[in-house]
Write a structure and sequence with these properties.
This protein is an alpha/beta fold. Helix content is about 35%, strand content about 25%. A seven-stranded parallel β-sheet has the order 6-5-4-9-12-14-15, with helices on both faces. The longest helix is centred in the first third of the chain and has 13 residues.
Length: about 270
């Protein structure tokens, strides 16, 4: 059944929806129906089926949908991909983001590094490069990756263990971070929009905010799939001392919000 048959506005052939607009419509449709076919979406959007498959793959990587039966279905409670699954997606993009972020880590620096697939990539970059660095982290994977480097010193936060994220959260984690002050904190984000930096994993936003409070500068690392989305827990609005490191071409409105807040983009 097409958008037109369901009484919803369908874009004319002369107006191709942008990727963000296609993503929004797919998610809107999944609130009304339990299954959407790739072929139907391609016809309604006037794009190739491969374009829709890429859209679905990006939405699945961010835990918003699941591929099934030649189409896409909504994600149910508790179905967000775990950190290992996310680390296998968009590897090239995360590697480039990590390469850029690593230029902000001078030899001998002390930094904070939170849990996530992109921050793990930065840890890998620092470890393989033999960068002398001291890292405070709530991520077991980050700790293990940097633990392989003789040049790195790792301080692992205490806290309540989240197995799917290989990370700790909670009051003990936040209290531990408050004992330190660093030049820069590097965090990931599940969403970045004009509303600011937001997070989907319960407990993560409090850890990110603690790292931000205990550092002179905040570096937010996020790929294209997170841009233009808003999740439930606000980490921070855009402000001076915040640098967004991304592979994305930012929408004009978002770029304006970042500039107005005094933040930077790398």
């Amino acid at each position: 059944m097409s958008f037109l048959a369901r009484g919803l506005p369908m874009p004319p052939p002369s107006h191709r929806l942008r990727k963000a607009e296609r993503h929004e419509r797919i998610l809107m449709e999944l609130k009304l129906r339990s299954h959407l076919r790739i072929s139907d979406l391609a016809r309604d959007f006037h794009v190739a089926t491969e374009t829709i498959r890429r859209d679905v793959a990006e939405l699945q990587a961010t835990g918003q949908v699941t591929k099934a039966f030649g189409g896409v279905i909504p994600v149910g409670p508790g179905q967000r991909p775990d950190v290992d699954a996310r680390s296998r997606d968009r590897q090239q993009e995360r590697a480039e983001i990590a390469r850029q972020a690593a230029t902000l880590v001078p030899p001998g620096a002390t930094i904070m590094l939170d849990a996530g697939s992109t921050t793990q990539e930065l840890a890998r970059r620092l470890s393989l490069g033999g960068t002398p660095v001291t890292v405070l982290t709530n991520s077991l994977n980050v700790a293990m990756i940097l633990g392989r480097s003789d040049a790195a010193t790792v301080r692992l936060c205490p806290g309540d263990f989240l197995p799917r994220e290989a990370a700790v959260i909670g009051p003990d984690t936040v209290d531990f971070l408050r004992r330190f002050h660093v030049g820069r904190a590097f965090i990931g984000a599940s969403a970045v929009s004009c509303n600011g930096v937001t997070e989907a994993v319960p407990g993560f936003a409090a850890v990110k905010r603690a790292m931000m409070a205990q550092s002179d500068e905040l570096v937010v690392m996020t790929d294209q799939s997170k841009i233009g989305r808003t999740d439930c827990d606000l980490v921070t609005s855009f402000r001076p001392g915040l640098t967004l490191v991304t592979d994305a071409s930012l929408p004009r409105e978002l770029g304006g919000a970042i500039s107005k807040g005094g933040a930077q983009v790398l």
